[in-house]
Amino acid sequence: VLYAGLMITPDGDFKVLEFNCRFGDPETQVILPLLETPLEELMLACIEQRLAQMPPIAWKQGAAATVVAAALGYPGTYEKGKAIAGIAEAQAAGAIIFHAGTKLQDQQLLTDGGRVLNVTGTGENFEQALAQAYAGMRCINFEGMYYRRDIGHRLKG
Questions:
Q1: Taking 80 as the threshold, does the pLDDT of residue 144 lie above it?
Q2: What 3-state class would DSSP assign to 131?
């Protein structure tokens, strides 16, 4: 997902501070599950400079929500190397798991960053998507894990 950091000058003009396009960001991981058009077709069309000839991008109906599982201390100092459990259970609950700060060592999944996992849920509406994301999050655990429990609370009902 492409997004830009903007500022407004004292004269009221907009200035671009940065453009970002990273698949590792939660802002991307919440949107991609709703993409109906195959991503690889869009990327290939970009590489081959034929995106303008593609049919309009199609999106699935519904909503998605993502919650980040972080290591204790993030965004400051945090420990690495904590065993992660519950990924399969979270997926069985319907959540989509994106690895952010993980590593596989000796067949064991371990924490290796501040933002460890991004757990995404989808549904017919935002409430269902959020419920699925939190259901998946409740399946996952590692020492020092924390996550916000107020994601989307202002948007409900």
A1: yes
A2: helix
